[in-house]
Amino acid sequence: MAADGTAPGAGGPLRLTLLVLLGGVGVSLFFVVRLQPSSAGAFAFLALWLTVPHAALAGLLLALQRRGQPVLPWCVAVVLVVGGGLYLLVDAIYWHPDAQSAIGVVLTPVLQGVAFLLAAPLAWWAARRRRAAGA
Questions:
Q1: What is the DSSP string of the chain?
Q2: Tell me: the pLDDT tens digits for 92-127?
Q3: 36-94 pLDDT per residue, tens
């Protein structure tokens, strides 16, 4: 039995969450292309800025998995954070574009960080309970 409660080789929630993160990166990069930044530097900055949270969350999940920690609660938190970030981007770019939408796009990774900081104690608590139940 793996640390996330799945049988070895079954994939489990970690693989699915990593695919969600990869999809989030792809969608974020698509949004950068659609925003048509004025220069290559602006494009590179915005692309990097919008994808850093995804890379950090993937690194966290992989580190937890290597340490043998239950990752399912963390996967749920990560999927919610990524989904919320993509929702904010869609809202700012397509549903309610206005003069302040650029601020919303630039603040999206910051808001994702805040959302993760709010979700992390719950994920930690759930992982701790899951670990205790499995012991």
A1: --TTSS-TTS-HHHHHHHHHHHHHHHHHHHHHHHH--SSHHHHHHHHHHHHHHHHHHHHHHHHHHHTT---HHHHHHHHHHHHHHHHHHHIIIIIS--TTHHHHHHHHHHHHHHHHHHHHHHHHHHHHHHHHHH-
A2: 999 999 999 999 999 999 999 999 999 999 999 999
A3: 999 999 999 999 999 999 999 999 999 999 999 899 999 999 999 999 999 999 999 99
- CA–CA separation, 10 and 71 (whole Å): 14
Token pair recorded at residue 103:
């601020």
Tell me the pTM.
Answer: 0.88
